[in-house]
Specification:
Helices cover about 25% and strands about 30% of the residues. It is an alpha/beta fold and about 300 residues long. It has 2 domains: about 150 residues, Quinone Oxidoreductase, Chain A, domain 1; about 120 residues, Rossmann fold (3-Layer(aba) Sandwich), CATH 3.40.50.720. Strands 3, 5, 6, 7, 8, 15 and 16 form a 7-stranded mixed beta sheet that branches. Strands 11-10-9-12-13-14 form a 6-stranded parallel beta sheet, sandwiched between helices.
C-alpha cells in the first residue's frame, strides 16, 4: 500500500509517499480502508520534527503522518477514528491504517466520509479543552483562533453547553464565528485583554487558547479563572490564581461517539476546504503551511 511519512523532518518538503505492506491488526485493533484523512497543523509540525524538538517523542528514522481518518473496517462498517500516538511509523495518511478499537467509532450518517474525516482531532481537542475549564452554563468563555478547526468547534461546543462565547479571530472571519455561536467578537488585531474587559469588566471565566497566545490571552481571564493551553512545551504561569490546564488530546470511543451524535444532530458542522489525492499530499501540506485555509484539506487515497 501507499503511505505518507516524514524522515528528514524539515517541513512540507520532507513528506514522502512510500510503498509498504498493508498493516495487520492485533487483538483489540481494527483495520480501516481509508476513504479520507484530513491534514491538520500538527501534521505540519510533525513533518518539521516538533515531537523530537519538544521532547514529546524519541527520535525515529520515520514518522507516520495523519491523525484523522474515515473509512471502512474489514467487516464493512463505516467508521471514524483518531490516531493520537506521535511516534507511529505509519498513521492515517495511507491506504490502510490499524487503530485500537477504543480509537474508533461508527461514522456519522448525516455527512459523507470526506466530511467525516475532518472533525475527530479538532473536535476531541475542543471538547476536552472545554471540559478542562470546568465552567457552567451561563459563564463566559474566550476562544482565541475561533475561525480555525479547534477554535471553531470550541465556539460551537461552548454555545451548546450554554456558555457565553467571546471569540477572537481575524476581521474577515467575524461573520463565520458569529454563525458558529459567538455572542461577542474581538478582532485579533486589537489589544485582546483590553477589548475583552470592555465586554466582561472583571474578565472572562475561562479561555480556550486555540491560537496559543499565552499570557496575552490569560490577561483577559478573571482572577481565579481557568486557562486551557493547547500546546506542548512550557505552559503559561498560574498568574492571579488562574489554573492553567495543558490539554493533550486522547482519542477514545466515548468522546468520538459524542462528537458523532452532535454532528448528526446538527450541533457541530464539518468543513472541507479542498481534497487532494494521497500522491499529491505535499501540495496539500504546503497549502496549509501558507495559512488562511478555512475548513480542512483532505487526502483521498
Amino acid at each position: 500500500m501507499r503511505a505518507l511519512v516524514a524522515r528528514r523532518l524539515d517541513g512540507p518538503d520532507a513528506v514522502e509517499v512510500i510503498e509498504t505492506a498493508v498493516p495487520e491488526p492485533a487483538a483489540g485493533q481494527v483495520r480501516i480502508k481509508v476513504a479520507a484523512a484530513a491534514v491538520n497543523p500538527v501534521d505540519l509540525a510533525v513533518s518539521a520534527g516538533m515531537p523530537v524538538k519538544a521532547g514529546l517523542s524519541a527520535a525515529r528514522a520515520q514518522f507516520g503522518l495523519g491523525w484523522d481518518v474515515a473509512g471502512t473496517t474489514d467487516a464493512g462498517t463505516p467508521v471514524v477514528g483518531v490516531a493520537d500516538l506521535l511516534g507511529r511509523e505509519l498513521k492515517t495518511h495511507a491506504e490502510y491504517v490499524v487503530l485500537d478499537e477504543d480509537q474508533v467509532t461508527t461514522a456519522p450518517t448525516s455527512v459523507d466520509l470526506t466530511h467525516a474525516a475532518t472533525f475527530g482531532l479538532n473536535g476531541l481537542t475542543a471538547l476536552q479543552a472545554i471540559r478542562a475549564l470546568r465552567l457552567q452554563s451561563g459563564q463566559t468563555v474566550l476562544v482565541t483562533g475561533a475561525a480555525g478547526g479547534v477554535g471553531g468547534y470550541a465556539v460551537q461546543l461552548a454555545k451548546h453547553f450554554g456558555m457565553t462565547v467571546v471569540a477572537s479571530a481575524g476581521a474577515r472571519d467575524e461573520h463565520l464565528v458569529r454563525q458558529l455561536g459567538a455572542e461577542y467578537f474581538v478582532d485579533r488585531a486589537e489589544d485582546l485583554a483590553a477589548t475583552v474587559r470592555r465586554i466582561a469588566p472583571v474578565g472572562v471565566d475561562g479561555v480556550v487558547d486555540a491560537a496559543v497566545i499565552g499570557i496575552g490571552a490569560q490577561e483577559a481571564v478573571r482572577n481565579g479563572g481557568r486557562h486551557a493551553h493547547l500546546q506542548g512545551g512550557p505552559r503559561p504561569p498560574h498568574l492571579r490564581n488562574i489554573t492553567v490546564e495543558q490539554v493533550f488530546i486522547h482519542s477514545n470511543h466515548e468522546d468520538l461517539r459524542e462528537l458523532v451524535r452532535l454532528i448528526d444532530e446538527g450541533v457541530l458542522e464539518t468543513r472541507v476546504a479542498d481534497t487532494y489525492p494521497l500522491t499529491d499530499a505535499a501540495a496539500a501540506y504546503k497549502r496549509l503551511a501558507e495559512g488562511g485555509v478555512r475548513g480542512r484539506l483532505v487526502l483521498v487515497p
